[in-house]
Amino acid sequence: MSVSSDGTTRRTYLDHAATTALDGRVLEAMMPYLTTEWHNPSSIYIESQGTRRSIDSAREKISSIIGSHPDEILFTSGGSESDNLALRGVLEARRGLGKHVITSAGEHHAVLDPLEQLERSGVADVTRLPLQRDGTVSASDVKNNLREDTVLISIMHANNEVGAITNISEITSLAKGYNDRIIVHTDAVQSMAHLPITIDNLAADLITFTAHKMYGPRGAGALYIKSGTPLAGQIIGGGQENSLRAGTENTAAIVGFATALEISSQQRDRDLANERALQKMLISELPRRIPYLGITGPRDLDKRLPGHVSCVVGFVEGESILLALDLAGIAASSGSACTTGSIEPSHVLTAMGVPQDLARGSLRLSFGRNSSVDDAQELLLKLPKVIERLRALSPNIMEPSPDWTEWF
Ligand SMILES: Cc1ncc(COP(=O)(O)O)c(C=O)c1O
C-alpha cells in the first residue's frame, strides 16, 4: 500500500489472471441493454428486433476478429460453462463410437472435474498427461497416447498458473493425421486476453473463451464450435443459440464481451509491450533479491503469457505470503483463484514435477493493461521483506533438499 499525494492509500492489483476491472468503454456499450433496450430478443415486436440485431452484431464482431463464421460462436456464461459443454457435449454426441479422452494433469478444474465425473459414471476413459518441466504439454506425448477409441483431446492453450503456452495446432494436426474424427478442444480463456487468437492459428474444433479476463463483464463467454463438430447441448428447454444452450440471452453481457474483445484487439500492441516490460523486470529481479526463489513456467518469453510471472519460494507457504502482501496493500495469488484457500500444493506445479514441499510456496503475479512500473517496484520493495519476516518466524528452516535446486 502506498500513500498518494492526496493522502489516500493505493492498493496494488497484481492478479489480472484472476479477473479484470470492467473497462469504462465496455460499460458504456452495455448500458442501453441494462436500461432501455432490455427486451427479450426472441419476441416478435420491434423493440425485440433491435435487441436481436445487437446480439447478431456482437456475434459478427467476435467472428471477424477470430476469423470464424458467426454461426460457429455460441454464447455462454463464461469459461467454466464452455469447458463443461465442450467435454460433455462431445462425449454425448460420440456415445457408442469410443470414450477415450486425452487431457493433461495441469488443466483448469473446469476441465479436470467434469472429466473425473464422466469417468466415474463410465462415460469417459481419461488419459492425463504430465506437464513438461516448463508447464507446456508435449505434442509427442499426445501422439504416443492416441488410441483407436480416442474421441476427444482437451488441452489448454495457456496455463493460468504458470502462463505456459502450448502449441495446439501441432497437437491438432497430429491427432487429425491419426484419425480425423478425433475432436480437439482447447481452453483459451487466459490467452485470448493477451494474444491475437484466431481459428487458423489454434486450429482446434472447439475453443473456450471468457470476457472477464479482458476487461469485459464476468458471466459472459463463448464456445467456438467448428462447423460440423458433433456436440449435444447441455442446457435444454429453449431454442436459443441454435438449440444448443437454452435460456434468454444476456444481451448486455454479450455486447460487453464483443466490445471488450474489440478494444483488446485494437490496443493489443500497446498493452503487450507494457505487460512484457513489467514481466521481464520481475523475472530478472525476483530471484536476485530473494534467496531460494525460482521462476516457474517457460524461460522463453514467446512461450509465456505476457504480464504473467509465477514462482516458488522455499521455506514459506504461499498462503502466508498472500496474507502478508494483502496487509501490505498488494493483491496477488498463489495460483488460480479457484484453488486459493486450499492447503494442497498446486496440481499444475506437481504435474510439472516440482517437489510437493517446494510447490507449497507458490506465488502468481499477473500484470494488466493499467499496471505500471510503480506496481512492479512496489512488489520488489515489499516482497523480500515479507519473505524474510516469514522465514524468521518459521521454526524449521533447513537446508534445501537436493531435489529443489533445479527449480532455482
Ligand atoms: C484457464 C481457465 N479456464 C476456465 C476458467 C473459468 O472461467 P470463468 O470464470 O469465465 O468461468 C478460468 C478462470 O480462472 C481459467 O483461468
Task: Describe the structure in brief.
This protein is α/β, with parallel strands linked by helices and 408 residues long.
Biggest pleated-sheet summary? 7 strands, mixed
> What number of domains?
2
Helix content: 40-55%
Bound molecules: pyridoxal-5'-phosphate
- In N-to-C order, the SSE pattern is EEEHHEHEHEHEHEHEEHHHEEHEHHEH
CATH architecture of the largest domain: 3-Layer(aba) Sandwich
- Give the percentage of residues in beta strands: 5-15%
Count of beta strands: 14
CATH superfamily of the largest domain: Type I PLP-dependent aspartate aminotransferase-like (Major domain)
Structural class: alpha/beta
N-to-C CA distance? 29 Å
Low-pLDDT runs of 5+ residues are none
**Inertia-based shape:** globular
Largest sheet, order of strands side by side?
Answer: 4-10-9-8-7-5-6
CATH class of the largest domain: Alpha Beta
Rg measurement, Å: 22 Å
What's the rounded overall pLDDT mean? 95
Structure characterization notes:
The protein is α/β, with parallel strands linked by helices and 408 residues long. The protein folds into 2 domains: 24-266, Aspartate Aminotransferase, domain 2, CATH 3.40.640.10; 268-407, Alpha-Beta Complex (Aspartate Aminotransferase, domain 1). Helices cover 40% and strands 14% of the residues. A hairpin with a 5-residue loop joins β1 (2-3) and β2. The longest helix is centred in the last third of the chain and has 22 residues, at 268-289. It is globular, with a radius of gyration of 22 Å. The structure holds pyridoxal-5'-phosphate (PLP). Pyridoxal-5'-phosphate binds at residues 78-80, 83, 108, 110, 156, 160, 187, 189-190, 210, 212, 221, 336-337.
